[in-house]
Amino acid sequence: MAKQARERRRAERRGHFAEYAAALFLLAKGYRILAIRFRTKAGEIDLVARKGDLAVFVEVKARVGEREAVDAVSATAQRRIRAASDIWLSRRSDAARLSQRYDVVAVLPGRLPKHFPDAF
């Protein structure tokens, strides 16, 4: 196997681990996880969570620092997540009564994840 392919698979595994760690962290904070890796033609949302009448679309970043994680969510990624969230909401019968928010969860080595509500 080529080195590049191995690195890509390693990064993918690290990302999946980070998504599950973030999901568990949000569960502990009282959120319900409705979807992990919700995929559409517009893009993918790492986590869709809900707390009361609030739908939360979460981008998960595994980085060495909090600032690096938040900065890694580019304007292009934000547009992609918003477009995918519109599709998710369009499939919900209760979408009209839900407010929405876009969060980032930073998964940091050796520490609990850090939640950044309303990050973008």
From TrEMBL:
Signal peptide: none annotated. InterPro entries: Restrct_endonuc-II-like, tRNA_endonuc-like_dom_sf, UPF0102_YraN-like. GO terms for molecular function: nucleic acid binding. It comes from the Bacteria. HAMAP family: UPF0102. Belongs to the UPF0102 family. This is UPF0102 protein NT26_4284. It comes from Pseudorhizobium banfieldiae.
